[in-house]
Amino acid sequence: MCKIVRVSDNPQDNGTSMPKNFAKPPELLDDERLANSRLPEEASRTFAELEGADHIDRSFIIAEGAKELASWCLRLLLIAAATYMVWFVGKQVWQGLLPIALALIVSSVLWGPTQWLRNLGVPKALAAILVILGTGGVFTGVMMAIAPSIGRQSQTLYLQTFELMQRTQLWLLGPPFHLKDDDLNDLFASAVNWLQAQSGKIAEGLFAGLGAASVFAVTLGVVLVLTFFFLKDGDSFLPWLRSVTGRRAGWHLTELLTRVWITLSGYIRAQAIVSLVDAVVIGGGLVLIGVPMALALATITFFAGFIPIVGAVVAGALAVLIALVSLGVTKALLVLALVIAVQQLEGNILSPLLQSRAMNLHPVIVLISVTIGGSLFGIIGAFLAVPVAATIAVFFRYLNDIIALRSGEKTASEISFATDAGSITGVWSEEFGRKLRDATLPRILPQRHTAVDDEPGTAHPTSTDAKSLTSTDIVGELMDRASNTPKKFARLFQKFPRR
């Protein structure tokens, strides 16, 4: 236990007074006279107010708050400007970035089989080619398997649709509508005239569709080529990046990009499992109910599942519509109940269980990202929305880990790193934060003592004593910064002899 003894020049001061036999040294008296002779009256009054006071002037608080607010506003404006520039440039080069993004996602899924072939001794290039050809073969086989059934049942579905239209016409002629044949003929004639008027736009749409098909073919070819090189030379990218950016930045990028890669591959695998379960259960239910093109609908359900929330709704609505046209209202309601039950099972049990480990994103964020991506870039944007949101979330989680290490909230042993480079970065960030706190805290919380009594049983300094010492340090710092004030006065209270 220790007690800080406050030394004061005024014997009437409420603090601990000086000993009666205490005599100031001559050099201290000279320093004090010199300081008092040169100090302005305002500085002396400020020192008197701060010494022993329980508060500081409000202007200091307001000025510091305004300064901090202005600093943060400037930072936010710079961040907003940089974000807008990135968004503007990205939108201009979207057609070039799209194949890269798709190739990265495909490569994250095919990286595991490629590494397995490499471990068996297959060369890098051959392993990449075999995996790409095998994946393409599986996809082509599925399409060829469902194509004949679609061709056979589409004609039947067309006839059933025509029959449904006739039944609808008879229903409109009867109660409660009691429409006449002339009214229906006029309605159909209006529809034909509208189609003829829109024929130009329809032709333009067909040509646009042909252009889109050619763009799709080119994009698909670029994606395949990029996927090949990513699978072949992907493991040499991070060492090259470290050689370009430097060791310290390279460590950060290695850990961050590895986390992004793990998140993307985990998301695609989890979504593939969820989509496969949906396709199998819904396809089996459609077969039992007797809905035509059940295999095709199951395939559509599988691929639509990669577009969260929206894809499942569209695939389910298509299945209900085909059941309504081919089998009637009762079977359509059964299909609707089946789709809703499967979606509830997926949304409440399967997806949270699998995707929470891969992305850890709230469903609201997923829905907002899909909506924004779909409105800006269509189906491709809706498909890429969740991976992009997951990548941004990984970046902010890594930034939060680094901040926690530097602020002392966590240690490197409490954070799970994906790479050895990340572990090195964690230890370095923890040490950097420790040095930063050691250099910053003494300026924020000054701790100086005039006298210390180490005798047992003595009390700790009171809040008044601590505030008095703090105010002395504040005035000392102010006097050190003033060019026309002797610096010796700032250290006046440090020259008294210790007991």
UniProtKB/TrEMBL annotation:
Membrane topology label: Multi-pass membrane protein
Location(s) in or outside the cell: Cell membrane
Alphabetic keyword roster: Cell membrane, Membrane, Transmembrane, Transmembrane helix, Transport
Keyword Transmembrane: yes
InterPro entries according to UniProt: AI-2E-like
Transmembrane parts of this sequence: 69-89, 96-113, 125-147, 206-231, 280-303, 309-342, 363-396
Family: Belongs to the autoinducer-2 exporter (AI-2E) (TC 2.A.86) family.
Designated name of the protein: Putative permease
Organism listed in the record: Corynebacterium epidermidicanis
